[in-house]
Design brief:
Elements lengths: L3 E8 L3 H15 L5 E9 L11 H13 L4 E4 L5 H11 L2 E4 H12 L3 H15 L3 H4 L15 H37 L4 E7 L5 H9 L16 E7 L2 E7 L16 H9 L2 E7 L5 H15 L8 E6 L9 H14 L10 E5 L5 H14 L3
Parallel strand pairs: 1-2, 1-3, 3-4, 5-7, 5-8, 8-9, 9-10
Antiparallel strand pairs: 6-7
């Protein structure tokens, strides 16, 4: 699976954004060393309730798949049970949606006991409503009037086992979350800083530079799933700094729980460093996505200082910091979903390869937390 792939997406108005989403899927596939042979995008007001895309493009993609020995077809949105079954019957190969791909990545990347439980739980919750479709290959021979075949009995047994396993995992998570709360309470009195941002914006690199650590960094999405905590000193005061998991648009709801440890650290922090990759496309959209998540989903305190760090300035020629600041303020004011529109942000542009920029970042952190 994931060796030779086709990517399929839809858009209503903004084709460039749809292209960006498929590029994101392609980057996700790099984790499995998967190759994308072709991307298909269609303008469509609503998804087809069975085939997701229009019938004409569907036939074209099936021909392409058969001619190029494609093993996996990936759709950019979560597929319904009926869509999944219909498409599997047509393509005769692996049909994957964005949710399943991200779940597989999380399962592959999970290292700690905590993250493994979260990912296992998310996978089971994803599988449970799809179990009937997964058993579709079994012949359901009725054993008499009103009887049920062996396939249906197997499904009911598996559903019961899965529900029991889900309850066990949820209870384990409750115990771990209590331990996390105790650890957090033990850190009371210490100033903490949370690094947040879209996945692959350079958060861990900044974390390493500030704390003089050498945690693994890669030019791939979701290098780590667990929040990393370390410390550094400013004016002889010990400061905790937390590198949180990178966020992603269209993140499956089943995986929100996997962000819980990061979310908890963000809410408890005294200062937020919001990292933006200057070399990325749609930086304003990604900024709004993270900011909306912080304020609307997490209910971050409006009084909490936030430093917007434009990272990788060495990769951009002739960028204008004043222009970026102005555009971000305009985006905030025009965004009806953002509650705290009057929030004052601090701005800084850096290159992690420049020692002076790192010192400048530490200095602005010092001022922001009033040390």
């Amino acid at each position: 699976m994931y060796k030779k792939n086709i990517l399929i997406g839809l858009f209503k108005k903004n084709k460039n954004e749809a292209v960006e989403y498929l590029n994101e899927l392609e980057n996700l596939l790099k984790i499995f060393d998967g190759k994308v042979t072709k991307k298909f995008i269609q303008k469509k007001r609503n998804k087809n309730y069975l085939s997701y895309i229009g019938k004409g493009l569907l036939l074209k993609i099936i021909d392409y798949k058969n001619s190029n020995n494609i093993d996996t077809v990936i759709f950019d949105d979560e597929l319904s049970l009926s869509q999944l079954k219909y498409l599997e019957n047509l393509f005769k190969c692996n049909i994957i949606d964005r949710t399943k791909l991200i779940l597989d990545i999380f399962a592959y990347k999970a290292k700690t006991f905590y993250s493994k439980i979260q990912v296992q739980l998310a996978n089971l919750e994803y599988v449970l409503p799809r179990l009937k479709n997964m058993w579709g290959h079994l012949k359901r021979q009725k054993g008499g009037i009103g009887g049920r075949g062996p396939g249906e009995k197997e499904i009911e047994t598996d559903k019961r086992l899965i529900r029991n396993k889900i309850n066990i995992l949820k209870n384990k998570l409750k115990k771990i979350n209590k331990e996390i709360l105790i650890q957090s309470n033990n850190r009371k009195g210490l100033i903490s800083i949370a690094i947040v941002g879209y996945t692959n914006v350079g958060k861990t690199t900044i974390f390493n530079k500030i704390t003089n650590n050498n945690y693994k960094t890669e030019n791939k999405l979701f290098t780590t799933l667990d929040a990393k905590i370390n410390n550094f000193n400013i004016k002889k005061k010990k400061i905790l700094i937390i590198d949180t998991i990178g966020f992603l648009r269209k993140i499956p709801t089943k995986l929100i729980e996997s962000f819980k440890s990061s979310i908890f650290e963000i809410k408890k922090s005294n200062l937020i460093l919001h990292i933006i990759d200057l070399s990325s496309n749609f930086i304003f959209n990604k900024f709004l996505f993270i900011t909306n998540f912080l304020f609307n989903e997490l209910s971050i305190d409006d009084n909490k200082p936030i430093i917007i760090v434009f990272n990788k300035k060495d990769k951009i020629k002739n960028f204008n910091l004043l222009y970026l600041k102005k555009q971000i303020r305009i985006k905030i004011l025009n965004n009806k979903y953002l509650i705290y529109q009057k929030k004052k942000f601090l701005f800084l542009s850096i290159s992690t390869n420049n020692i002076k920029d790192i010192l400048k970042l530490k200095n602005i952190i010092s001022k922001a937390i009033l040390i």
